[in-house]
């Protein structure tokens, strides 16, 4: 289909039913056969990839929830580990504690040069923190990826508006590949993967059915630069008050 870069969802390797299963399934990058096959495919198809996986490390049983960027030679050029974990604990209500099954990341990863511009990496729940997208813009991002596993309830309420808001305020493209459908007895995801342009237009969207689908969008960095020039939000920002990265 001519894509220069392909975006996969958060947790593309597996969605575990419980903590112990997740620990058992997690692999170190150098031993991960799933990741190896994606790297091989990227090289064979001469295509860049953004991929959400669980990344095990030697010093912990728990893995990181990571967004890995692979270049067209099949090499990993960027690894971001999710900063904001989805922890919900409502008295007499639902509980979902991501921190019980994955490690918390500790740093923002600078954007990396890709065929579709300088790409910053985030993951799912990170989309609720505008300071993160603004920090990536400060670092030179022209696009931000948000691989996700959004719940159906929060997705129906907030998915579109959050992604469009992040694109508008940071004046970047947003790439949001999302899991869809039922994964096991406990998990079902909203889907609606999309690409948003820096004006906030949804320029590509996957089907809202429970079947996997693909959406293709044209990325125009000249258009992005025009928007930034005509609406100079960044130039007028009070960096004397708000910290610049």
From TrEMBL:
InterPro entries: C-N_Hydrolase, C-N_Hydrolase_sf, Nit1/2_C-N_Hydrolase. It comes from the Eukaryota. The keyword Hydrolase applies. Keywords: Hydrolase. GO terms for molecular function: hydrolase activity, acting on carbon-nitrogen (but not peptide) bonds, in linear amides. Pfam families: CN_hydrolase. Transmembrane segments: none annotated. Residues 1-221 form the CN hydrolase domain. This is Putative hydrolase nit2.
């Amino acid at each position: 289909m001519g894509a220069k870069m392909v975006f996969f969802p958060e947790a593309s390797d597996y969605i575990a039913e419980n903590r112990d299963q997740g620990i058992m399934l997690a692999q170190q990058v150098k031993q991960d056969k799933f990741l190896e096959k994606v790297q091989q495919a990227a090289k064979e198809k001469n295509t860049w990839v953004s991929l959400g996986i669980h990344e095990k490390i030697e010093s912990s049983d728990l893995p990181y929830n990571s967004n890995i960027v692979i270049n067209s030679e099949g090499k990993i050029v960027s690894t971001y580990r999710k900063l904001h974990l989805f922890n919900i604990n409502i008295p007499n209500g639902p509980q979902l504690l991501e921190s019980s099954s994955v490690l918390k990341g500790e740093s923002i990863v600078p954007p990396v040069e890709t065929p579709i511009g300088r790409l910053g990496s985030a993951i799912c729940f990170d989309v609720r923190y505008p300071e993160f997208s603004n920090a990536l813009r400060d670092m030179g991002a022209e696009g931000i990826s948000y691989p996700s596993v959004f719940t159906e309830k929060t997705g129906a309420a907030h998915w579109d508006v959050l992604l469009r808001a992040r694109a508008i305020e940071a004046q970047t493209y947003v790439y949001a590949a999302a899991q869809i459908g039922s994964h096991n007895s406990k998990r079902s995801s909203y889907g609606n993967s999309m690409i948003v342009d820096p004006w906030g237009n949804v320029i590509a969207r996957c089907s809202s059915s429970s079947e996997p689908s693909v959406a293709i969008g044209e990325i125009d960095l000249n258009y992005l630069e025009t928007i930034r020039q005509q609406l100079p939000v960044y130039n007028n920002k009070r960096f004397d008050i708000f910290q610049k990265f």
